[in-house]
Recover the amino acids of this structure.
């Protein structure tokens, strides 16, 4: 079986969020299970691309509106990621450094999808499955069925994964002229509330859609930024499959990005060595428990309550220190930065994206806080568990599916609402629990023995592919 994953993010080429981690790992594990899986993504002029060798395997031209666009498809020569990686390069549109935030994003993603169709149409042997990830490629399930020039692609089965239903790729209908010619009687399949909605289009037209956890699927039926009725109407083709983690890359016993490797047998000394190094670098105290936040400064991540949470914890009676690693909303960053001089020696922060530092923080921390309003799956809590760092999370989406509170014989701490007072109380409950060495050993051992690797989830996707092909 041949499967092509379509995405605008893939680690380590271009990463903004968890989408990149999924697309950078799932195809590798599928190949280990016997599936011919590959990735096609836009070309980004970034470090991985600059440092590795690519060869051109295809080229072509197509009209986007009145503009004649040329593309070339580049393949990474050595399959260093464990699967074939293809980059689509279009001068002026798909040859940039950043992934998002350009004013012509709609034009970029339309061009990417059109170039994919043009390339696929040139193949003698079509893939069995196109696995489309998020709204950026949400028009593919429609265009493979109803575009005039690509009718032979209709035999390909399409799977669409919703990584975050809040972002839907809305565009005005004046962008319709940029699409490849299609059966205009079918225009309603792309429409939602008077706009082209790629996410809605994909849900209507794909053979199956998946969400990145079972909990998130049930939540989409109740709230999906206006699409909850559609998700509910199409539930017969819905599947909740929780994300996994790349256990070869996220492994404290082999991780080259941390100071000292460790496993179950030496988790205490290993984490302490990593904590000492991090604390020395950021002027913190290695004798105190360390609570960390890693992620985007966004309201959907609950980052807007971090400043209140920090104040409540650091002014409280329990000894604790806090490390923040993230970027995003400038206002949230300013709120955190304003606290740094007040709590010098107990609060430190790194503002920006730093993959290596993230590994060090997971290895050094005792607790990880995730106060998310929306969390389709969440990967940070899975990384934390692998590194013996206990997650403190809001019970929502994938967090609810993957973190069980210690009161239910679990391995984490869960709270109900995005509220600084409730989050602080739960952190304090966690601090009191892990203050007992016997309890800490028990919960760490349980956390690190959990298997959230991609093997199980990759097989579930393969089972779904087989069902569709049959």
């Amino acid at each position: 079986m041949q499967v092509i994953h379509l995405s605008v993010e893939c680690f380590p080429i271009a990463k903004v969020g968890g989408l990149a981690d999924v697309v950078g790992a799932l195809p590798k594990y599928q190949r280990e299970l016997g599936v011919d899986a590959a990735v096609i993504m836009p070309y980004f002029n970034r470090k991985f691309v600059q440092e590795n060798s690519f060869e051109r395997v295809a080229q072509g031209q197509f009209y986007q509106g009145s503009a004649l666009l040329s593309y070339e498809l580049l393949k990474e020569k050595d399959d260093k990621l464990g699967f074939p990686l293809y980059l689509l390069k279009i001068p002026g549109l798909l040859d940039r450094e950043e992934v998002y935030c350009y004013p012509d994003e709609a034009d970029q993603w339309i061009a990417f999808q059109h170039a994919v169709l043009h390339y696929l149409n040139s193949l003698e042997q079509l893939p069995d499955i196109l696995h489309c990830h998020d709204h950026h490629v949400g028009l593919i399930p429609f265009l493979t069925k109803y575009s005039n020039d690509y009718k032979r692609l209709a035999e390909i089965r399409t799977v669409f994964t919703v990584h975050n239903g809040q972002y839907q790729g809305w565009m005005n209908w004046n962008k319709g002229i940029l699409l490849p010619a299609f059966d205009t009687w079918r225009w309603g399949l792309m429409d939602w509330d008077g706009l082209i909605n790629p996410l809605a289009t994909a849900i209507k037209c794909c053979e199956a859609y998946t969400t990145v956890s079972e909990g998130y699927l049930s939540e989409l039926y109740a709230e999906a930024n206006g699409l909850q009725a559609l998700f509910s109407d199409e539930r017969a083709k819905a599947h909740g499959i929780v994300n996994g983690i790349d256990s070869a890359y996220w492994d404290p016993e082999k991780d080259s990005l941390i100071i000292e490797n460790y496993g179950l047998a030496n988790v205490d000394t290993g984490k302490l060595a990593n904590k000492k190094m991090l604390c020395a670098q950021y002027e913190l105290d290695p004798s105190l428990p360390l609570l960390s936040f890693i992620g985007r400064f966004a309201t959907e991540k609950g980052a807007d309550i971090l400043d209140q949470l920090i104040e409540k914890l650091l002014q409280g009676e329990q000894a604790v220190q806090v490390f923040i690693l993230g970027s995003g909303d400038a206002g949230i960053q300013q709120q955190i930065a304003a606290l740094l001089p007040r709590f010098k020696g107990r609060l430190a922060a790194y503002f920006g994206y730093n993959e290596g530092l993230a590994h060090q923080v997971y290895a050094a921390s005792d607790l990880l806080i995730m106060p998310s309003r929306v969390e389709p799956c969440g990967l940070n809590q899975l990384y934390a568990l692998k590194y013996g760092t206990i997650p403190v999370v809001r019970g929502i989406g994938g967090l609810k599916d993957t973190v069980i509170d210690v009161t239910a014989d679990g391995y984490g701490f869960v709270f109900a609402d995005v509220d600084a007072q409730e989050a602080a109380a739960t952190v304090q409950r966690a601090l009191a629990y892990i203050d007992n060495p016997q309890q800490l050993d028990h919960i760490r051992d349980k956390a690190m023995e959990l298997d959230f690797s991609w093997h199980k989830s990759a097989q579930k996707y393969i089972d779904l592919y087989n069902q569709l092909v049959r």
Notes: The chain has 16 helices and 17 strands. The longest strand covers residues 54-64. The CA atoms of residues 33 and 189 lie 35 Å apart. The mean pLDDT is 97.
